[in-house]
Amino acid sequence: MHTSGFHPFKGRVSKHFGDTLSPDDAYLSYYDVRLTKEDVDTLKDDWLTDNCIAFWEEYLEREVLSQYPNSNIVLLRPSMSFLLMQTPNPLTLKSALPDFSRTTHIFLPINDCRNVEVAEGGSHWSLLLVSVIDGVAFHYDSLSPSNVEDARHAAHKLSQLLGRSLRFTNLEDSPQQENGSDCGVYVCIQMRHLLTKRLLRANSQHKVPMSMAGKAVDASGGRKEMLRTIETFRREGERRRS
């Protein structure tokens, strides 16, 4: 719960920048996301955790989508995407998920973990963008076709939940990562690009191109930007407490 009602920073952060923290210590609490030191460390050169992607989605909602009050776009958190994929009857999740009755587009981070007993499991992230209004699910996989079946499964579950068919499209021309750890960064960067450069700029009279073909993804720069964003919020939170 928000204790003040007007700012996003809550919970425990270290008093001084650079303090030694253990991996499970809170590094930043931003609205509903609590980032630990371990989460932030993965942004430097490792495979991104659920929390890192959830933070980026929360950030996009608060800082970008809030400027477009008439938009009806949902950024589903990794935990909810996983729950949707693992639940036999997705209709039982209606009370736990956002109300999709007016939603035009849904972003879902897809993880290849299939073991519900393993927290933070899996080995690869990809992005599913569902255009509810067009009835199409676009899949962006930076190690194509690694997650294609997982994404297809998620699209099927979502179609059951929405009560309408979705045509699954695996975009094989999506930008491809150059190592084994940048998949989550690709999800975050492409999510923002598709949101800010395509959907929110769309003219209702024109069809929006959804392919990312030919778009360069600067994973290293993306990691640095996400870290800078976190540090900015962290310093602001410390200033509020000083």
Number of helices: 6
* Helix percent band: 25-40%
Q: In whole angstroms, how far apart are the ends? A: 22 Å
Give the SSE string.
EEHHEHEEEHEHH
Radius of gyration: 18 Å
Shape: globular
Number of strands: 7
Major sheet description: 5 strands, mixed
Estimate the mean pLDDT confidence.
90
Q: Which parts are unreliable, with pLDDT below 50 for 5 consecutive residues or more?
A: 1-7, 9-18
Beta-strand fraction estimate: 5-15%
Q: What class would the helix/strand composition place it in?
A: alpha/beta
Main β-sheet, spatial strand arrangement: 3-4-5-6-7
Question: Could you characterize what this model shows?
Answer:
With 242 residues, the protein is α/β, with parallel strands linked by helices. It is built from 6 helices and 7 strands, in the order ββααβαβββαβαα. The chain has helices spanning 37-45, 50-63, 78-86, 148-162, 183-199, 219-241; strands at residues 26-30, 33-36, 73-75, 105-111, 125-131, 136-140, 167-170. Strands 3-4-5-6-7 form a 5-stranded mixed β-sheet, with helices on both faces. Helix 1 (37-45) packs antiparallel against helix 6, helix 2 (50-63) packs parallel to helix 5 and helix 3 crosses helix 4. The chain is globular. The two termini are 22 Å apart.
